[in-house]
Amino acid sequence: MQKSEKLQKAFAKFDAYNATDPNTEEFEGKTYAKEVLYAERMTKKLNDYAPEAPEYMQLAVRCQHIGRWEIARNSYPMDRAGYLMWRSQLKLHHTKIAGPILKDCSYDEETISKVKALLLKKQLHQNPDTQLIEDVICLVFVEYYLDDFAKQHSEEKMVDILQKTLKKISPHGIEEALKINMTAHVKELILKAAA
């Protein structure tokens, strides 16, 4: 996919911000700042899944987790309500970082508003753009993070989490998820959740 100069500049600024993430991840023999790697995976997945996605969608996907490490999960109660509060704060946090970067890259207010609305996950199931970003998030989770995540939780908890994930993803997204190369254990968990 051909990237505009503005888009390349925005990606570089998002990545530079995420490069300050103190958390790292090894992938294919290389060490990455965790959120840089996540952002690259999100972009790659969007390009594979929806290669015709508009520029505002490409921007939203790239900065979906920008500055995520700056609000620690344990700064909220470690229960469901605390988790939801943390997620809500993170969404706002991402928009506060992304907005000025997009302005600095000369994006217009309409584009910036669309990106922010996507980061806030507004109108899931009603808005095809929000559904698309949610599909990409779920597909990246299944492909790169689900196996490790499943090792840290009981089967019962994992089936519950996957049922919630399956409610967010579109039928097309589910089809694509089942094509991903995954361990037998993960596939079994997904099939239990789907049942």
TrEMBL record:
It comes from the Bacteria. This is DUF4202 family protein.
